[in-house]
Write a structure and sequence with these properties.
This protein has 315 residues and is mainly alpha-helical. Helix content is 71%, strand content 1%. It folds into two domains: 66 residues, no CATH class; 229 residues, no CATH class. It has a two-stranded antiparallel sheet with strand order 1-2. It is globular, with a radius of gyration of 21 Å. The model has no long low-confidence stretch (mean pLDDT 92).
Length: 315
């Protein structure tokens, strides 16, 4: 309580330096976004929300600084539109499809099917709705968990946030080293590569149809690159949450996290957004990010010191 009171006393809402820094960062981001990917209202929302938090209160300022890690992720993901990975390497379409069928194929009456093709022919209303809700949780759950950690344990919040960012950076790197088409692409276009293919709701279209809405249609219309199916970062995020939930001994809540994790993994395949191989790669990516971050923190050094300094800033 005493520390909070002292922080409130020292808080200067519109100090010239802070206004200049936030204005420069916001203007620079919006200008760069305009040049690289064009204007979108989401960019204004992001900049406006962070500025609102930063100038609102002492806690809001620390929250804005802490969540700048997630802002960095979102900005990098958005800017990927300016640098399509299919310009760097050949897109894996048929080879990935054949590998999936060889490893996880399901024998049908007449031919060998991938799990995606099997579910395409055995869809149900219950699974459509359940998969939609699981898929909707892939961002809100990590963000809600991060907010929980921010108010419960700032040190763990920082560790979780930097792990989240690291896993994304690893995933983005693989996107460019191994451009890959999702299952729905093969279902719609075959094995021919078609640049600038728009995003697609695939099996999630059935969720939209069930409720008579265009929720997933609006989400996937903003897709940065459809040829970024490997690894499935949808599958990485809930696993990071589950790991930190177990690490923080959240008890029965971890059962919910485990159900969400398994649900997202299933939904990724059921809706034809990812192959089983993509999901496994996402799991591997999450495990690699967690191990690398823990190794960095246990080994000390400049990176670990920088993380500790960041923690002190938002304490």
């Amino acid at each position: 309580m005493k520390q909070n009171a002292e922080a409130a006393e020292k808080f200067t809402r519109f100090a010239a330096f802070n206004v200049a820094v936030m204005s420069a960062l916001s203007a620079g981001y919006l200008l760069l976004a305009l040049v690289l990917v064009g204007f979108h209202y989401n960019q204004l929302l992001l900049a406006g929300f962070l500025n609102l938090l930063y100038f609102f209160s002492p806690t809001g300022r620390k929250l804005a600084i802490g969540f700048s890690i997630y802002a960095a992720y979102w900005i990098l993901f958005d800017f990927m539109k300016a640098f399509p990975n299919y310009l760097i390497g050949d897109v894996r379409i048929e080879s990935l499809y054949n590998a999936e069928k060889a490893l996880f194929g399901i024998r049908g009456a007449e031919w060998l099917m991938t799990p995606n093709e099997f579910f395409l022919h055995h869809a149900s209303g219950f699974l459509d709705v359940a998969s939609g809700f699981f898929y909707l949780s892939w961002v809100p759950v990590p963000m809600a968990f991060a907010l929980f950690l921010f108010f419960r344990n700032r040190g763990e919040f920082v560790c979780f946030s930097f792990t989240f960012l690291l896993v994304n950076l690893l995933g983005f790197a693989v996107y460019y080293m191994y451009p890959a088409a999702p299952p729905w692409y093969v279902q719609q276009y075959g094995f021919e590569f078609i640049a600038c293919t728009p995003g697609n709701t695939a099996g999630l279209e059935r969720f939209d149809a069930f409720f008579g809405i265009g929720l997933f249609q609006s989400i996937y219309a903003q897709s940065s690159n459809v040829f970024a199916a490997m690894p499935s970062l949808h599958s990485s995020y809930p696993l990071i949450v589950l790991y930190y939930g177990v690490r923080n001994r959240l008890g029965v809540v971890n059962i919910l996290f485990a159900v969400i994790t398994a649900g997202i993994w299933f939904a990724a395949v059921y809706t034809s957004h990812h192959y089983v191989l993509d999901v496994l790669a996402g799991i591997a990516c999450a495990c690699a990010g967690i191990l690398i971050f823990n190794r960095v923190m246990s080994g000390g050094g400049r990176l670990a010191a920088a993380v500790h300094r960041f923690s002190r800033i938002i304490e």
